[in-house]
Amino acid sequence: MCSVFKIKIQMLYSKIEGEGKPFIIMHGFLGMSDNWKTLAGQYVEAGFQVHILDLRNHGRSFHSDEWSYEAMVQDVFEYCQANQLTRIDILGHSMGGKVAMLFATTHPEIVDKLIVADIGPRFYKQHHQDILAGLNAVDFSVKPSRNDVEAIVAQYVPDFGTRQFLLKNLYWKEPGQLAFRFNLEVFNNNLDAIGKALAADLVFNNPTLFIRGGDSGYILDADFDSIRQHFPNVKFETIPNAGHWLHAENPKMFFEMTTEFLKE
Fold this sequence. Notes:
There is one protein chain. Helices cover 34% and strands 19% of the residues. By secondary structure, it is α/β, with parallel strands linked by helices. It has 2 domains: 14-123 and 196-263, 3-Layer(aba) Sandwich (Rossmann fold), CATH 3.40.50; 128-189, no CATH class. α1 (37-45) links the parallel β2 (21-26) and β3. It holds the Pfam family Abhydrolase_1. It comes from Flavobacterium saccharophilum. One of its GO terms (molecular function) is hydrolase activity. Residues 21-119 form the AB hydrolase-1 domain.
């Protein structure tokens, strides 16, 4: 007598809207699909079937001790298989852009066009220490209110916009008990993973768009040549007077640049 064990694949949480060409959107570190809700609706109106994902250890997706770009790419691949997505366009911001780059270079048979928002394929050293210090300073065992949490985080993160972005992750785990949706413990233990460079031999030959914020230092002119080595069919755009959250600071220009590229 033999037994058959089925391994259950943990599937990413997503919001799917619209009809047309499948278009996957992936958020950055400490973000979630909700950050892209407004733009997603505009892409739907432009004729796309939009899939905004929560990557592992973020948003409403599952938590896992394994947190790497390879694991996140495998999650997206399994998501595409489960949803029968055989040809897609894909967009990723920051950490999500790193996932999108690795996905496109390892699964080019699935990706028609790639959009990367304000991140490059090079290595980035740790620069989230103040943010993580603020998040770790919150003691949920004393059942703080939302205002209490914000006051604690504000001591480490003075920028209002960044703080509001982070606090979108607060939710009521149970009545009277707030928590963060993301897996802070895993991030604390493996923060180096977020800055990992794309392997030198990986190449994606299909049309690619890199968009940077004019006031952001994540993509420099000096990075263009190395980006072309990975993405020879690349186009560069800059949104003036925008920082790292360029899609939130100037959503109109971001939408126009991306839809023009997607419809070329």
